[in-house]
Amino acid sequence: MNILPYSIETTNDKLTSRAGLLTIAQLMSDLKLQERIDQHFTLPKSNHGFNPSAFIQTFILMQHEGSVRLDDVRHLNEDEALKTILGLKIIPKASTLGAWLRRMGKDKGSLDAWVSINKIILKTALHNRKSITLDIDASEILANKKGAKLTYNNDKGYMPMIGHIAETGQVVACDFRDGNAAPAKENYEFILQCIKSLPENCYLKAVRIDSAGYQTAIIKYCDEKNITFSIRAKLNNDVKEEIYNTIDADWKPLIDKNGNEVKNQETYRVIACIGDHEKAFNIVVQRTKIKGQSNIDFNVGEESEELNKQGYMYRGVATNDNEKSDSDIIHYYNQRAEDSENRIKELKLDFGGDTMPCSDFKANRLYFLICSMSFNLFALMRHLLPEELSHHRMKTIRWRVYAMAAKVVKTGRKWFVKLEAKNQAMLEKVMQSLRRFEAPDI
Description:
Blueprint: E1 14-16, H1 22-30, H2 33-40, H3 52-65, H4 73-77, H5 80-86, H6 94-105, H7 110-126, E2 131-138, E3 141-142, E4 149-150, E5 156-158, E6 161-165, E7 171-175, H8 187-196, E8 203-209, H9 216-224, E9 228-232, H10 237-244, E10 252-255, E11 261-274, E12 277-289, E13 306-309, E14 312-319, H11 326-334, H12 336-350, H13 361-384, H14 394-402, E15 406-411, E16 414-419, H15 421-434
Parallel strand pairs: 2-8, 8-9
Antiparallel strand pairs: 1-15, 2-6, 3-5, 4-5, 6-7, 9-14, 10-11, 11-12, 12-14, 13-14, 15-16
């Protein structure tokens, strides 16, 4: 066996493998996040207790680093060099983090506190934008926890409803729900919650929802408030009857974003109403040729999201937008998959939103909100990063920016972070990019 020519020795130098976390720490500092958290969240009753900022900023650092379990906080606690350069005097232990989540989760003011802080992050990212597009969707979280309910997939867990701002990718509101909550439950109320959670002087101009949002209350509210809606329609018997009576000449080819016809896909526009709402709207029906199923017809129930008949699959998008073409409406609605579903996936997989730390429902609700805050900070950071980094997910940022080895030394009264030349250049470039914004005053 050949022994490589090296020897293993110890050093008293302060070393860290996470020097790039300086970036998110700088962003939190520029936003005055510590002061804002302690201003809005309930402070400890004892002088010996940790302020809320100590807990939330620890969670944010953990989630940006990639930690998904409370015990992973020991990685931060053991990194003396990182604690030195970030000025972290207090990092709670895992048991303390869990106890705080359970205690603060019961605090009735926690949700309002989160909304107040999140408004600052949203306002910073939106800059001077006055109107937004809202994408909402429910997402299943598997969690074999005490008290967790069975989801529609017959798994124990939770079913939070999440609202995203399409223009910035950030979470505007979360409604953490039991696993057995129906996706269509209180969607109208959730839209109102999202509107309430927007920064001051910012309004809702458009909303995109799946078929769970195909409800009279939502469509009526959008018409009354002049909000453009694009909702996956449920095809009732009247719409189906009109589809059955069409001929091939009634259908228009679906045009892709480059102006070319999409093979075997066509559109047809139907005028429809819903419930007791008297104002009519359009359903843009898209039909797609299904190869090998020309003789198989499915028509289950009075209303269905999909219709399979005579070798075609039919799906519709309900909208009050009379300006866009049929093809543009289809593409606009399909964009929500990127603007909402993919971002929910990032929230869950990249920031620990799919790993609940406690058995207590309210504690997990607060933890999910903190995961959303971490995601929103990253979404803000992504808008500020240099071009070569601005389109990447957190996993890439972790190994390209956060995971930088460095030595921390003190000369005179000043601390220096010493990195490899290429890492030093990258970190400086990122830090300069993050200085391009001004946070709102407290």
